[in-house]
Here is the input.
Amino acid sequence: MDLGEWRAVDPGTGAAWFSLLSVPWWFSGGWALDLHVGEQIRDHDDLDVGVLRRDISTALAALSGWEISEAKDGALTPVQPGDVPRFDAHSLWCRPSGTVLWTVELLLDECVDNEWVYRRHEAIRRPLSSIVHRNPAGLPYLAPEIQLLYKARGTRSKDQADFERITPRLSRVARAWLLQGLERAEPEHPWISVLRRAGV
Here is the structure.
């Protein structure tokens, strides 16, 4: 099913839409990894932005002039002003009202108190204070080891390429965290043997 096309937007442009947000937010997806290494390695079809589910009402209020839809199971369901997404919806497609191209994918992360929780395996947790890094320009992005854990599920060719280019640039602590996360959540994943051979 054709759900529409995307407008490629860079983080500098996207930051203008979220810079005044009063709750934590960060760039996710491939852009998060590029911000970590300090250069754009490949083209990106969209711009992913993460927020905590508990903050979604505040985030959507900042996009009050936008059209928002839940993306789930190959279908889009509009989110009406004042409503919040269903609990099993983790992705919101967003575009300024009156435009045709989708502009931002808003990704919802889970947390309990002051801990980030990996929604695919609730035993995998991190202090909220540790999940966001900033590049020299101050742009926030999801910690690369967390982003790679998300990418491990249903690995696409671009996810494999991201793993191969990013893993050597992770700290030993970050590689060890990724290995432990994969062993718990994706115990048959081929990245596990790669990380083990790297001696993390």
User: Anything to note?
Assistant: The two ends are 42 Å apart (CA to CA). The longest strand covers residues 104-112. The beta strands are 25-28, 47-52, 66-72, 75-78, 91-96, 104-112, 115-117, 125-127, 132-134, 140-142.
